[in-house]
Amino acid sequence: MMPSTAAVHSVNRYVMSVPDLNAAERFYRHFGLDVRATPGRLDLYAAGHRHCWASVYANGGGDKQLEYVSFGLYEHDVAEMQARVAALGLATDPHPLSDGDGLWLRNPDGLPIQLIKAPKVSPDAKSLPSPRAAVPTGERAAGLRSQAAQVRPRRLSHVLFFTPDVSRMVEFAIRVLGLRLSDRSGDLVAFLHGPHGSDHHLVAFAKSTHAGLHHCSWDVGSIDEVGAGAEQMRAAGYAEGWGLGRHVLGSNYFHYVQDPWGSYAEYSFDIDHIPAGLAWTAADHPPEDALYLWGPAVPDAFFINHERART
């Protein structure tokens, strides 16, 4: 399967709806995001970054629902992408929660996708650790718990989606979006990166009975921040999750926190980077190599899809 010429360069934004915006605002503020509220909507920003990574809408009391995903394109790729979408017969109307801009299509699971000319917000190089002064021998290296600063993610790293057919979604991501396979484990899980340079995965897909959002992953500056983020969420009442551990595919240190709707937000540090032009060798890994190198056992609830099936 040959990669496309035109390709998305970033996850521009993901959009979801929830039954209670107050619960969403509390969760994401404690997580360390910059939450900006307008009537009926929350916009999620990261520390020191002016890009809006996600929007969360009130849905009037229904279940949590992934509404659409927006991907960024370079201007010179727009015409080729328009022709591709038209030739494949994938065009659809804009999502009613969107501004209507860009190209609109549906993926094989029925999720609306926006392709829009936008600045590249995926990283062009591996993210650097947060600066930290060396501590001389004979002095205490750990800060005081009572004086710990809030962990604040620096950017969105990736989004992982549930799908009933991982292979079909991989084919769509490569053929239509122009992404490239990084690694996979059969039809259980697959990870894809951008040919213009990105983390090991911009998007990933995990097997489920139906489509949905599994987790959003946010980059932080150290393994200490991963652990401290987990602790700040436990202190706020969000004790369910998975971590601290280290992934195999992507190599990042992680801790996942379960949100009020059963999906997860991940603190992630030191994920692999695949620069533009690198011919990354993708592999199909056995299940025991698909999730983690070390850490606690995967919770039974980790791959339960709480989102309602799309009609």
Give the gist of this structure.
The protein has 311 residues and is an alpha/beta fold. The protein contains four helices and 18 strands.
Q: What is the share of helical residues?
A: 10-25%
| Average residue pLDDT | 94
What profile does the largest beta sheet have?
9 strands, mixed
Adjacency order of strands in the biggest sheet: 14-15-16-13-8-12-10-9-18
Helix tally?
A: 4
Beta-strand percent range: 25-35%
Topology:
Blueprint: E1 10-18, H1 21-31, E2 34-38, E3 41-45, E4 52-58, E5 65-73, H2 78-87, E6 103-106, E7 112-117, E8 155-163, H3 166-175, E9 180-185, E10 189-193, E11 198-199, E12 203-207, E13 212-219, H4 223-235, E14 241-246, E15 253-258, E16 264-269, E17 273-274, E18 283-284
Description:
- This protein has 311 residues and is α/β, with parallel strands linked by helices.
- It is 14% helix and 33% strand.
- It contains four helices and 18 strands.
- The protein has helices spanning 21-31, 78-87, 166-175, 223-235, and strands at 10-18, 34-38, 41-45, 52-58, 65-73, 103-106, 112-117, 155-163, 180-185, 189-193, 198-199, 203-207, 212-219, 241-246, 253-258, 264-269, 273-274, 283-284.
- The strands form three sheets. Strands 14-15-16-13-8-12-10-9-18 form a nine-stranded mixed β-sheet. It has a seven-stranded mixed β-sheet with strand order 2-3-4-1-5-7-6, with helices on one face. A two-stranded antiparallel sheet has the order 11-17.
- A hairpin with a 6-residue loop joins β3 and β4 (52-58).
- It starts with 9 loop residues before the first strand and ends in a 27-residue tail after the last strand.
